[in-house]
TrEMBL record:
<keyword id="KW-1133">Transmembrane helix</keyword>
<feature type="transmembrane region" description="Helical">
    <location>
        <begin position="94"/>
        <end position="114"/>
    </location>
</feature>
<feature type="domain" description="DUF7704">
    <location>
        <begin position="12"/>
        <end position="149"/>
    </location>
</feature>
<feature type="transmembrane region" description="Helical">
    <location>
        <begin position="20"/>
        <end position="39"/>
    </location>
</feature>
<protein>
    <recommendedName>
        <fullName>DUF7704 domain-containing protein</fullName>
    </recommendedName>
</protein>
<feature type="transmembrane region" description="Helical">
    <location>
        <begin position="134"/>
        <end position="151"/>
    </location>
</feature>
<keyword id="KW-0812">Transmembrane</keyword>
<feature type="transmembrane region" description="Helical">
    <location>
        <begin position="59"/>
        <end position="82"/>
    </location>
</feature>
<dbReference type="InterPro" id="IPR056121">
    <property type="entry name" value="DUF7704"/>
</dbReference>
<dbReference type="Pfam" id="PF24803">
    <property type="entry name" value="DUF7704"/>
</dbReference>
<keyword id="KW-0472">Membrane</keyword>
Length: 161
């Protein structure tokens, strides 16, 4: 009896997606964690100068900022670690779908600044650049990956989740 043919190999994750999700995004998350924990006054002033504390950061705010930094570290580690351990497209798709939902939440979170935050690029400061266009970029990159843009389609259809 002849051996059964091997199943087709899953499509390789394109280099752009690997670069963005294994290196660029985890490094940007680490940067946010450093600012949220070690540079709290700067982080708050860049987020919304008018409501940032003028002097010392209140203890309750400091605790929340450190918790935010901790969440950033956890998220960055999980993204870098989980996606490095597998090339299983199903795992990547589920993980990136969760992050895409978080992108929408992140964009919504800055709405109290005013709707201008989404399009007034000439008014953006460093944190705005990270909160708006960089999140747009990540969300668009996730959508492209989820749609299979850039994958070699050698007769293999990408499986849905």
């Amino acid at each position: 009896m002849a051996p059964a043919p091997a199943p087709p190999a899953p499509p390789a994750i394109p280099t752009l997606y690997r670069f963005v999700f294994l290196y660029i995004e985890p490094l940007s998350i680490l940067t946010g964690a450093v600012y949220a924990h070690f540079l709290q006054s700067t982080y708050l002033a860049l987020t919304h100068a008018a409501s940032a504390p003028g002097g010392a950061v209140p203890i309750s705010t400091s605790i929340v900022m450190t918790q935010l930094a901790n969440l950033y570290l956890g998220l960055g580690f999980l993204e870098a670690a989980v996606l490095r351990t597998t090339s299983d497209l199903k795992v990547w798709r589920v993980f990136l779908t969760g992050l895409l939902l978080a992108d929408f939440g992140h964009l919504y979170s800055v709405l109290p600044v005013g709707t201008h935050i989404y399009w007034s690029y000439w008014r953006w400061n460093a944190i705005d650049w990270g909160n708006v266009p960089f999140v747009y970029f990540l969300a668009l990159t996730r959508v492209c990956m989820l749609l299979g843009v850039g994958f070699k389609k050698e007769g293999v259809r990408l499986k849905s989740m």
